[in-house]
Specification:
elongated; 89 residues
Length: 89
């Protein structure tokens, strides 16, 4: 056994707070997909982010609850989610 002092393995809580407050890359990718003129379908989001459909819907719900107006367009064959230009950006 050595007489060297061991490192303190507890981490600084301030570091964790700053990491949590930063936007997550996948959330930003989702915002970019939804901000496109045509929006994005659940299948397109699945392919880009590797998420399950229920995870996609939950993430969109979190965006809405944070004040981002996400529109659901069911006029075509496939439902599309979209952030209207100039809103929530």
């Amino acid at each position: 056994m050595t007489d060297q002092p061991t490192e303190n393995l507890t981490s600084d809580p301030a570091k964790h707070r700053s990491a949590r407050s930063a936007p997550k890359p996948k959330t930003e990718m989702l915002r970019k997909l939804l901000a496109r003129r045509t929006g994005a379908t659940v299948v397109q989001i699945q392919k880009q982010l590797g998420w399950q459909p229920h995870t996609i819907r939950a993430a969109i719900s979190r965006l809405r609850s944070s004040g981002v107006p996400v529109e659901l367009d069911r006029s075509g064959r496939v439902a599309r989610y979209r952030i209207m230009p100039g809103e929530g950006q």
